[in-house]
Amino acid sequence: MTEILNVEHLKSYFPIRGGIMLRTTGYVYAVDDVTFGLEKGETLGLVGESGCGKSTIARTIMRLIEPTAGKIYFDGNDITHLPLKKMRALRKHMQMIFQDPYASLNPRMKVGQIIGDPMAIHNIASGREKQDRITYLLEKVGLKPEHRDRYPKEFSGGQRQRIGIARALASEPVVIIADEPVSALDVSIQAQIINLLEDLQEQFDLSYIIISHDLTVIEHICDRVAVMYLGRIVEMAPYDVLYTRPLHPYTEALLSAVTVADPDHRKKRIILKGDVPSPINPPSGCRFHTRCQYKTDICEHEEPEFKAAGNNQWVSCHLR
Fold first, then answer.
1. 192, part of any domain
2. Backbone region of residue 202 per phi and psi (left: phi > 0; alpha: psi in -120 to 50; beta: other values)
3. What does pTM read for this prediction?
4. Structural domains counted in the chain
5. First to last CA, the chain
6. CA–CA separation, 93 and 79 (whole Å)
7. Contact (CB, 8 A) for 146 and 177
8. In a domain, 303, yes or no
């Protein structure tokens, strides 16, 4: 398969300023040397605890945050330092679905305008054609044509997220990055949105990056999963390989916390000790060694290589 998106050694650091002169006194290492690719028609899941850098990766790929270092390629073209005008045009092909369906929609705009504006900005449709396409997209995401004349405040959280999905589809993208698209919704609505995303992917030939802290959600929708810890990917594999043969101790701990819908099933829960270290001053060596039950001396001093482990599985661990 062909890669539509490729990220190489991506870094996003945020300066910490202090003192009267507001000098830079340090950095938040939000994303620190991340590499992965996304194939056409694939769904890649990014998982990890809050603050591990998942959302920063999404915004950096979209160039809503400028990368500190590394390369971003879209359809074989380097877009890392693309001028703003050209980047705006490129965003026709890459869109985002945001986590908060309440904050991501302009409360002063009617639904028809929210969905129709991307069509006008990217010269996709106008006049009657645009109105017909708005109706078409509303129906595709499970809403009614008359909803176009209502404001976001008149909808539930699940309906607002459907509006956000329709807006993302309006510019006819090939890649959609969904940042925690169901975390703010009720469980019953989550299933509906996940099924909707799967149906739309098949109909519109989309490639997805799905960001979530919920491994159950990721299991149901993703082809491949990348596990992040403290700004880095520590393991990446096809979902069935990852869920049956996790190699990194952090992945093992995450999977041990997943609820299984079987009262007779018993599994050992792995409780991680301590808190996630600060991204301002990450540990030396393996960043997970401060919480790892298997750590050795080498883990404290030497950074593990992100290496192939068979079955299209990659892991960053000295013990694997």
1. yes
2. alpha
3. 0.92
4. 1
5. 28
6. 13
7. no
8. no
Q: Residue 189 belongs to a domain with what CATH number? A: 3.40.50.300
Question: Do residues 213 and 294 lie in contact, with contact meaning Cβ atoms separated by under 8 Å?
Answer: no
Cα distances (Å, whole numbers) of residue 44 to 209, 214, 255, 317, 320:
5, 14, 17, 21, 23
- 111 membership: H or E segment, kind and range: helix 111-121
Helix (H) or strand (E) segment spanning residue 69: strand 69-74
210 within some domain: yes
Count CB atoms within 10 A of the CB of residue 233. Answer: 25
Map tokens 């960001």 to a residue.
211
Q: Is residue 297 part of a domain?
A: no
Domain residue limits at 47:
3-93+173-248
Of the candidates 193, 99, 101, the residue with the CA atom closest to the CA atom of residue 152: 101
Find residue 98's DSSP bridge partners.
none
pLDDT at 251: 95
Measured CA to CA, the distance from residue 117 to residue 139 in angstroms comes to 18
Strand partners, 207: 175
Tokens (6 digits) for 269: 């829960």
Check residue 263 and give its pLDDT: 63
Helix/strand/coil (H/E/C) assignment for every residue in 196-254: HHHHHHHHHCCEEEEEECCHHHHHHHCCEEEEEECCEEEEEEEHHHHHHCCCCHHHHHH
pLDDT of residue 274: 81
